[in-house]
Amino acid sequence: MPHHGHDEEHEEPVNFQDRRRIDPETGKLRQPAGGQPADGGAAAADGEDGDALSQAERILNEAAADAEGDAADVGITGAQDPDTAGATVREEELRNDLLRVQAEFVNYKRRVDRDRHVAKDSAIQSVLTALLPVLDDLDAARAAGDLAEGPFAAIAAKFDTVLAGFGLERQDQESLAGQPFDPALHEAMLRQPSAEVPEEHIVQVFRNGYVREGRVLRAAQVMVSAGAEG
Predict the structure, then answer these.
(1) Which residue has the higher pLDDT, 188 or 1?
(2) pLDDT category, 46, cuts 50, 70, 90?
């Protein structure tokens, strides 16, 4: 049968470790168990920072010494070239790269400006060419006397002024009669003898031509003199 007697209980002693950093009796800062001061971590961090700064300073000094050695090897001195006095090889390479990039940018800007001008000129020429049939109608109305006066005559005059501002030049009867025939500018539709107009000169304009900045938008259709009948 089990023994129900009151056996003496053996309990293990309980130990408490006071981890308070401030001694409640003295009010002073306690030392850690390892014997290191409470600010040992900060001191270690300061030491690590000091080592890092020392290492960085050493690297910079070595880099400066290497740069001076490279400059001495290539013979870069202030007496030889005042503009590059004290410059390292790397600095010279960067300077040359910068000059090359600047030159490329200048050339690129010139190409862009040139292309922009060409595109603008082409657009103006296309618009003027599309308006030539309208100018033919105005010329026909003017020849019929419909634009002699009135508001439409004023509108037609303003229209001609605007087109002239874009460099459009009309080659009509008034400007071409008696002028030498030029196959690059004029289209010969007829050739007849004429006592008043010298040979190979324009006698009459059948359809006006238009030129802009020396470029023919449309050649004038003309009659050319074959000279006096012999």
Answers:
(1) 188
(2) very low
For tokens 């400066």, name the residue: 64
Residue type, 161: T
CATH of residue 198's domain is 2.30.22.10
How many Å apart are CA 64 and CA 196, to the nearest integer? Answer: 93
In DSSP terms, 210 is beta-bridged to 170, 218
| pLDDT tens for each residue of 137-173 | 998 998 888 888 888 889 999 999 999 999 999 999 9
Residue 192 has, within 13 A of its CA and on its CB side, a CA count of 9
CA distance 221 to 219: 6
| Structure token digits, residue 145 | 């006397």
Residue found under tokens 């439409």: 152
What gap in Å lies between CA 87 and CA 164, rounded to an integer?
60
Is 159 within a domain?
no
N- to C-terminal Cα separation, the chain: 169
